[in-house]
Write a structure and sequence with these properties.
This protein is mainly α. It has twelve helices and no strands. The protein has helices spanning 2-11, 27-44, 74-87, 92-95, 100-111, 119-122, 128-143, 149-170, 177-186, 189-200, 206-230, 237-256. The N and C termini lie far apart (130 Å).
């Protein structure tokens, strides 16, 4: 028990006494010093802008507009001009070269061989109509039991190359390969009608032969009319119609046989 009391007294023993304090130490002075330091720190803080002289405040851009009347902002005008430029852009189909009005006019020109062709419209590399007519021709041949997609595409490419070379030799201005392919492709429309007839009845006979000859003359007459009007080849329509008739005659052989 005595050992525990001795440990207890040693544990709480401290060398700190009030007598060890420095002379003149007063709690009120300490509080005053602390309060004074805090007051000094508060005085050092920046005061509101209302109590600072205008010379000390750095110069900045002031608002010169009026209420409900914003000032001129070139960035906002540039954004508005860019949005208006997007609105003024042409439609996507026109940028891709797809003009339904021109497609319809070319189709009517092919369907009516006696109608005069517009050279400005026909002298275009529009491949929308020819692609549709080639696919339709292959599809109708397939419905008739003839899978001749490869023959149609191969003969079309070779025929376009031959007629392109011939027209460049005959005309002064010259013509592009895309224009020749476009015209020959649009003039495939009567051949699509012939292949559609092959679905319902056989063309291997007198009636089929006569119908094929009419379709060949129709296609070649339309193509030669368009070429002569687009290339200003006056009095040369029969010379242009002959190679076109050979080209469409090969396609008619695929359709009949």
């Amino acid at each position: 028990m005595s050992n525990f009391e001795q440990f207890h007294s040693d544990f709480y023993q401290s060398s700190y006494t009030i007598d060890n304090q420095e002379p003149g130490y007063n709690h009120s002075e300490v509080n005053e010093n602390l309060y004074g330091n805090r007051k000094y720190q508060i005085d050092e803080l920046p005061q509101p802008a209302a109590f600072v002289s205008p010379e000390i405040i750095p110069s900045s851009q002031n608002y010169t507009g009026q209420i409900l009347q914003p000032t001129y902002n070139p960035e906002f005008l540039s954004h508005s001009n860019s949005s208006s430029s997007f609105d003024e852009e042409p439609p996507l189909l026109e940028e891709l070269g797809i003009n339904f009005d021109h497609i319809w006019q070319k189709t009517l020109t092919v369907l009516n061989p006696m109608k005069p062709a517009d050279g400005s419209i026909m002298n275009e590399t529009d491949m929308t109509g020819p692609t549709v007519f080639c696919l339709t021709l292959g599809a109708t041949l397939l419905l008739a039991g003839k899978a001749h997609f490869g023959y149609v595409y191969g003969m079309s490419a070779i025929g376009c190359l031959g007629i392109h070379a011939l027209l460049n030799l005959m005309s002064i201005a010259g013509v592009s390969y895309g224009c020749v392919a476009s015209v020959l492709g649009y003039c495939l429309l009567p051949m699509v009608i012939l292949s559609s007839c092959a679905i319902f009845f056989s063309l291997q006979g007198i009636l089929g032969t006569l119908l094929a000859l009419i379709i060949i003359g129709w296609c070649s007459l339309s193509a030669s009319k368009i070429f002569t009007s687009a290339l200003a080849m006056e009095r040369q329509q029969l010379l242009v119609a002959y190679p076109c008739a050979l080209f469409y005659g090969l396609l008619a052989l695929l359709t009949v046989f």
